[in-house]
């Protein structure tokens, strides 16, 4: 027989999760606006090439959802940081909750928004191609199809969801550090930009470049899932452990 504490724990997590979905439904409006902005930036093409000679010229524009996905990852990173702030944490204590139930509900919420963001981002790719074909006076669209096959779409949603969730987990970890001590709001950006500067001066092949290459250029989906999924679990685990140092409202 399931104990009362076990029932109470699962019920609290579920109620807190659905409360977060209802209370934060407005963040999806900001996501859509940000993705529309990314679509407008993408109308010039995410890549270009051209050639010509002897009275002819060929110009090729590439259209993809890459920029939209990038904006979505940035959105997820920011929203995850917001989720760790005091105003959001204290809302959790409307319920009978603790640090563990709060973190589990937050992670479930971030998984959900990452999935929704990934689906919306991928749907902009065929939209971009349709707009380019009908409204931008492109005479030829070199593509087998403007739309995904079911298999391509499912793989794309899985991979994109993991990327968005990776930035969500990273944002959640960064936000947790900042809530522990405000000095991290200075230290973490300083370390990041200092690393960028040093690696740009010394050239490729350094730590940050290696990490980016390992996560974003993996050709095997199985290895990609292990690398990104493992990073997500690590970030959430560290954030959960560190959150125990935050003050608990009784």
Question: What would a concise description of this structure say?
Answer:
With 250 residues, the protein is mainly alpha-helical.
Describe this structure in words.
It is a single chain. The protein is mainly alpha-helical. Helices cover 72% and strands 6% of the residues. It has a two-stranded antiparallel sheet. Strand 1 and strand 2 form a beta hairpin. Residues 1-6 have low confidence and may be disordered.
Range of strand content? 5-15%
Fraction of helical residues: over 70%
What low-confidence regions span 5 or more consecutive residues with pLDDT below 50?
Answer: 1-6
Strand order of the largest sheet: 1-2
- Written as H for each helix and E for each strand, in order along the chain, the element string is HHEEHHHHHHH
Mean pLDDT: 80
**C-alpha geometry:** globular
Give a quick set of tags describing it.
250 residues, mainly alpha, two-stranded antiparallel sheet, 9 helices, globular, disordered N terminus
What are the SSEs and their pairings?
Layout lengths: L3 H20 L3 H16 L4 E7 L2 E7 L3 H18 L2 H7 L6 H37 L14 H31 L3 H19 L4 H10 L4 H23 L7
Antiparallel strand pairs: 1-2
Helix pairs in contact: 1-5, 2-3, 2-5, 3-5, 3-6, 5-6, 6-9
């Amino acid at each position: 027989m399931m104990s009362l504490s076990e029932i109470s724990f699962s019920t609290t997590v579920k109620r807190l999760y659905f409360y977060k979905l209802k209370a934060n439904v407005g963040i999806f409006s900001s996501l859509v606006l940000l993705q529309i902005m990314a679509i407008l930036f993408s109308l010039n093409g995410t890549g270009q090439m051209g050639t010509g000679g002897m009275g002819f010229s060929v110009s090729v524009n590439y259209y993809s959802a890459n920029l939209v996905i990038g904006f979505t990852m940035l959105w997820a990173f920011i929203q995850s940081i917001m989720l760790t702030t005091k105003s959001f944490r204290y809302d959790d204590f409307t319920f009978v909750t603790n640090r563990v139930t709060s973190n589990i509900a937050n992670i479930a919420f971030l998984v959900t928004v990452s999935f929704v963001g990934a689906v919306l981002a991928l749907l902009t790719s065929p939209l971009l191609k349709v707009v380019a074909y009908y409204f931008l006076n492109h005479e030829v669209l070199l593509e087998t199809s403007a739309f995904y096959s079911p298999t391509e779409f499912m793989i794309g949603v899985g991979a994109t969801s993991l990327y968005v969730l990776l930035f969500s987990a990273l944002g959640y970890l960064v936000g947790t550090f900042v809530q522990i001590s405000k000095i991290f709001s200075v230290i973490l950006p300083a370390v990041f930009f200092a690393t960028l500067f040093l690696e740009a001066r010394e050239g490729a092949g350094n730590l940050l470049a290696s990490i980016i290459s390992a996560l974003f250029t993996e050709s095997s989906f199985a290895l990609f899932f292990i690398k990104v999924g493992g990073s997500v679990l690590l970030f959430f685990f560290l954030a959960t452990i560190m959150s125990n140092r935050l003050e608990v409202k009784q």
